[in-house]
Specification:
The protein has helices at residues 31-42, 55-64, 97-114, 143-155, 176-186, 208-213, 242-258; strands spanning 3-4, 14-17, 47-50, 69-72, 77-82, 85-90, 119-120, 131-134, 159-162, 166-170, 198-202, 217-219, 236-237. The protein is an alpha/beta fold and 259 residues long. The structure holds magnesium ion (MG).
Length: 259
């Protein structure tokens, strides 16, 4: 049963946040959202970004923002800090990547031949582990066509999940949740089987594993677009959508720390 965000109680040790549709508002991170993220860090609550975007995006986030760690490619590549250096964790052994990617490109070609209009996302060339079919970023497929892509990819032995813009797919050995559990163990130093001290906020179907795994999971209001398709619903819901929903979440977390 999903409850209003106001019923979420602390203490909260860190915030895990999706990026597209959660941190962004109409494809941009608004100044007020970035400012809220900075305030959260100043209040002693670290931020971990969790995105389906490429590892290259994550590298930039790690270099240019105060984020503690970044999960990218839906769990395929995770960046953590080790002193001044960045350390990269892969969702599958790095030595197995060339063979995985050869097979994934074969599947992508097959899907594109069967679903007219389906294309690899323009950011796919910057991905290390997963690939993405664009259904709603620069292309305009219907939800049904996007689901056909998901079905064909899963049938070929990969794990596909749909965000608000892409159908991401990769080896079936990781997801956003498994990568976040690694961050909890290795970076936050706590038991990954108990995610109750942490909050996750997201907006789309590829966040379903996070909604399942985090007892304190929050959906920004635009998650309602996919509500009936969501296999696991968030525990809490914001009143506002996209970046405003993330700001609402951060404002609430700040009241919990102030107590
Ligand atoms: Mg999203």
């Amino acid at each position: 049963m999903t409850r209003p965000l106001s019923e979420l109680h602390g203490p909260v040790r860190a915030l895990f946040s999706d990026v597209d549709g959660t941190m962004t508002t109409g494809d941009r991170i608004e100044a007020s959202t970035y400012e809220a993220l900075e305030r959260l860090g100043e209040a002693g609550i670290p931020l971990i970004m969790v995105t389906g975007r490429p590892a290259g995006f994550a590298h930039a986030f790690m270099k240019m923002t105060p984020v503690l760690a970044t999960v990218s490619e839906n769990g395929g590549v995770t960046f953590i800090r080790e002193g001044r250096k960045l350390h990269k964790l892969y969702g599958v052994p790095a030595a197995s990547l060339p063979e995985w990617r050869r097979r994934m490109h074969e599947v992508a070609v097959d899907v594109m031949s069967r679903v007219p209009g389906a294309r690899l996302s323009s950011d796919s060339k910057y991905r290390e582990v997963d690939l993405a079919i664009d259904w709603n970023e620069e292309c305009s497929l219907t939800r049904e066509e996007a689901e056909t892509c998901v079905h064909l990819i899963n049938k070929a032995g990969f794990l596909a999940s749909r965000s608000s813009i892409h159908v991401n797919f990769g080896p079936p050995h990781f997801d956003k949740l498994s990568a976040c559990m690694t961050v909890v163990r290795q970076v936050l130093g706590s038991d990954a089987n108990d995610l109750s001290p942490y909050v996750f906020v997201g907006d789309a179907l590829n966040d379903a594993p996070m909604f399942r795994g985090f007892p304190n999971s929050v959906g920004v209001a635009n998650v309602k677009h996919w509500w009936d398709e969501l296999s696991h619903k968030p525990a809490y819901l914001t009143e506002r959508a996209e970046g405003a929903g993330l700001r609402e979440t951060i404002a609430h977390l700040m009241t919990l720390t102030a107590r």
